[in-house]
Amino acid sequence: MPEAHDRPPETFTLRLRRFDPDSGEAPYWDEHTVQLEPHRSVLEAVLQAKDRDDGSIGIRCSCRQAICGSCGVRVNGEPALACHTHLDAARAGARDGVIEIEPMGNMPVIKDLIVDMDAVHWKKIQRVTPWLLPKQPVPEREYIVSKESMVDVTQTMACIQCGACVSDCLAMEVDPGFVGPAALAKAYRFVGDPRDEERFERLNDLAQDPQGLFDCTHCFKCVQACPKDVNPMGQIMRLRRIATADHHIVDRNNGERHEAAFASLVKDNGLLWEAELLPRSYGGNSWFGKLAPAAGRELLASLPTAIKGLVRGKMGPLSAIKPPHRLAREDLKAVQAIYDKVESRPERYELNLYVVGEDEAPQAEPAGAAAGGAEGSAER
Amino acid sequence: MKVAYWPGCVSRGFTPELHGSMAKVAPLLDIELVELDRACCTGAGVIAEHNQELADTLNARTFALAQQVDGAAMMMNICSTCQGAQSECQERLDANSEYRAHVNDTLAGEGLSYEKGLTNKNFLWLLVEEIGLERLRSLVRRPLTNLKVGPFYGCYIVRPRERLGIDSERPRDRYLEQVIETLGGSVIEYAGMRKCCGFPIITMNKQASLKQAGRHLGDAIDADADCLVTPCPLCHLNLDLQQPTASKVVGRQLGMPVLHLPQLVGLALGLDPKELGLTRHVVRPTAVIDWSSSVVAAAA
Hints:
The structure holds two protein chains of two kinds.
Chain A: E1 10-18, E2 28-36, H1 42-52, E3 72-75, E4 78-81, H2 87-92, E5 99-102, E6 109-111, E7 114-115, H3 118-127, H4 147-157, H5 164-168, H6 170-174, H7 181-191, H8 199-208, H9 221-225, H10 232-246, H11 255-269, H12 274-283, H13 293-311, H14 329-343, H15 353-356
Parallel strand pairs in A: 1-5
Antiparallel strand pairs in A: 1-2, 3-4, 3-5, 6-7
Helix pairs in contact in A: 3-7, 4-7, 7-10, 8-10, 11-12, 12-13
Chain B: E1 2-6, H1 16-28, E2 32-35, H2 46-50, H3 52-67, E3 74-77, H4 80-95, H5 97-107, E4 120-122, H6 123-131, H7 133-139, E5 148-151, H8 161-164, H9 175-182, E6 186-187, H10 206-222, E7 227-230, H11 233-241, H12 243-250, E8 258-260, H13 261-268, H14 286-299
Parallel strand pairs in B: 1-2, 1-3, 3-4, 5-6, 5-7, 7-8
């Protein structure tokens, strides 16, 4: 079989989502066929349809090489850069052989495939003070920082502001005020920068915001959506770790308490004691947490759910008083020894694969099975 | 086949019918479950959010215990969230030998060590990849004829694709559909089938959390599903236990039964609905039970 770029032009069918809010008409689907080599991009196909069939098709683009971030769309329901998606791959992923192209989600449509990035994405980016607030006094020459700390923040600097993660964010889908993955990744870019003066203030601001740091629903959509491996959710989790473990920020959203309660319930029992997690997340991380007013209100509100669970035998009546399951003494001691050793380290030890890389190529067998071995270093 | 079996916490806590139904179904599929009763919680991503090394070490201990099970072909779990949390830790442990040695040093006190190369599969993956759809089809005693089932995966078992080994050769994010069809049911596709149930933020933002659950349930109703099936007990908590509250949040009647994967398989393999714990759900899967008992009655 010839190389992709040697193959002759083929016919591809596109199904475009068209919408002009000014027209007063509802959105509709519009099909076009184009003739292009299979290694050409979805963007080239849309531009050919616009050039030959219908000049009114709206799409935003500029660099055509996955650098400017202008042509974010959804191809077959998944976020993508139109210029970075090959036609043959897009057709292979299509439900019925027709490549479906829609505007991104979570942002209003201006026309056809063009969304209003300014109304959503850029407002959220501005929300996180996206510039360095330099440590004082500013040195006469340059700041001297470790190489690792700069490599670390380059992961978030790789963001091209295409909006793919914003488009796919499931928390934003139900809570449009959520600061969102792109902006929080940008926040990490400065929180992780040793030259920044206001690390604590940035973290505290985002942790206390009910639609901030603890509003992420942990769905990995942004991780999957990002064409530049920024790993926004990973950055959000790191922000949470730094806010809670390093700066002991107790937020108004139960984020810190939930985390602390979860970790200590597993330390005490080896397994999770679900009935105790809720009161502690609201009232504070101890058995007495449930007596706090905030916990009382929540427990009262949850009473109908709890009663239903009891009636259906999902939980025993004693599960509110003692854990339903616990590891045997020896195993619990071993688990607690792990906690003690790891938590007594002067600094959290965190492997960042983006910084250190993998020391061996993973084999085809994923999510478990064996692969080879080699060397590498860990500390960030 | 013999597996080192990690049931997770919630399957033995708030959704005991999951653990129970897995125990009933396993012998019918010739799966020998050796329960990892010495292993601790995976941390469900929350312990990793608190301290990454702690989560990696706790899970490395579980992996090491699994590797000690004599004759086990692999480790198996019945929880999407456990799968995702364990896969994330395993990715770091397997990627870097120095880090693995560092973590193993903590386990050394107990005489344990994790060696790179554990295979850990959710029951869904094991069903399709190890048992095989053809064999599963041959074991069906009570086909799910006319039962319209909506899949609900849970985020942790479908994203990120690379970490979870999902590709065109192993379309693990399509397996629920394949299993439903193999058991004789009809697949109902709806908007929320690979979205988030909202459970991770139930204590942080209850409205947003239950709005997610409520919307997906509503979408499934609009798509004419009789019930949903999920491989994730945490999704089950938000979709079933919290369904009455979710109904208020989204302002519509719901009443959508949600089955655990082993329950759906068990029904098709001829087990009794009550034995599978179907009476323990908040939203009683009446449609399913009526349907299955009438088929049983007809067969008898």
